[in-house]
Amino acid sequence: MITAAVEAIAISRKFGGRTVVDDVSLRLDKGEILGLLGHNGAGKSTLVKILATALPPSSGSARVAGFDVLSQPAQVRSRIGLAGQYASVDENLSGRDNLVLLARLCGASRREARDRAGELIETFALGEVAGRAARTYSGGTRRRLDLAASLVSSPAVLFLDEPSTGLDPVSRTALWDLIRRTAQQGTAVLLTTQYLEEAERLAGRIQLLSDGRTVACGTVDELKRRVGGSSVHVVLADPGTAAAAVAGLRRALGRDASTVPGGGGRLSVAVASAVDVAAVVRTLDGAGIGIADLSVAKPTLDDVYLSHVRPHHRGSTS
Ligand SMILES: Nc1ncnc2c1ncn2[C@@H]1O[C@H](COP(=O)(O)OP(=O)(O)OP(=O)(O)O)[C@@H](O)[C@H]1O
Ligand SMILES: [Mg+2]
């Protein structure tokens, strides 16, 4: 039998009577990257803390690296890495000293610790800065050090809580490569993010959280297909033609365009292909409806949300 790297069953967590993680189950296998996607306050970090034994669940159970998070927290902790909002890096130590210290804390001998630090410094291209205090690092370099620190113990499971927030595109891409390589070496990676693009680049599967509940699960392609591929955003030359435009598009595409109330003639409609984009233009043109602006956008996290979140939850944030 193959044991999952992470198996969580019906995890819930309340804070002062408010349920912030609600009956969430998930499974993650060796070498897999699972993207936990959701807006601010969706419950991502809380779930990660529960799986990393930093916070007990109110109910439910989870096994991480084969051990129970409630009854065997020490075994779990020695097999996981945690990076992101919980950086274990000491600002005043150099990058190298941080890595050596962490390796020593994991039980490595002086020599083993030095070797492990050297290996990570090389992998994460930290050679030039390794002798400097961590507080002097740029954001991107600091993230690479955080990630290196979380990998000192060669963890079976790596938790990354919004690893690329605040990074420029170049640093972000470099970090994504490192995360991918880590998974290829067999580490199971649970990654939280608010960015559909990040999940798309990294995660084989995505689990979408909203108000603490799982609202969708699947590959990025599956989720996008359910959203309908891309959307066309149109700004009408005359906002007064919005109703006629929606009716025309419904006839042509069999779908309702959404309008922004008071949005000055802005509407959006899901399109499955370039043929649909052409149909939008033809339909509006044919009806004599002027277009001031038109753009095609890939689905965003918002689109995916809106297509999955139960209607009475729409628009709720925390
Ligand atoms: N210790 C706490 N006490 C009370 N409420 C908390 C606590 N920790 C988290 N919460 C609440 O639980 C909800 C979920 O928080 P969580 O940090 O898990 O969300 P998140 O998905 O990680 O959000 P973000 O994208 O902003 O990091 C939020 O409404 C938050 O205010
Ligand atoms: Mg968070």
From TrEMBL:
GO terms for molecular function: ATP binding; ATP hydrolysis activity. It is a peripheral membrane protein. Keywords: Antibiotic resistance, ATP-binding, Cell membrane, Membrane, Nucleotide-binding, Translocase, Transport. The keyword Membrane applies. Transmembrane segments: none annotated. Residues 6-236 form the ABC transporter domain. One of its GO terms (cellular component) is plasma membrane. It comes from the Bacteria. The keyword Transmembrane does not apply. Pfam families: ABC_tran (PF00005), DrrA1-3_C (PF13732). SMART domains: AAA. Its main location: membrane. InterPro entries: AAA+_ATPase, ABC_transporter-like_ATP-bd, ABC_transporter_ATP-binding, DrrA, DrrA1/2-like_C, P-loop_NTPase. One of its GO terms (biological process) is response to antibiotic. It is found in: Cell membrane. PANTHER family: ABC TRANSPORTER ATP-BINDING PROTEIN (PTHR42711), DOXORUBICIN RESISTANCE ATP-BINDING PROTEIN DRRA (PTHR42711:SF19). Belongs to the ABC transporter superfamily. Drug exporter-1 (DrugE1) (TC 3.A.1.105) family. NCBIfam families: drrA. This is Daunorubicin resistance protein DrrA family ABC transporter ATP-binding protein. It comes from Actinoplanes nipponensis.
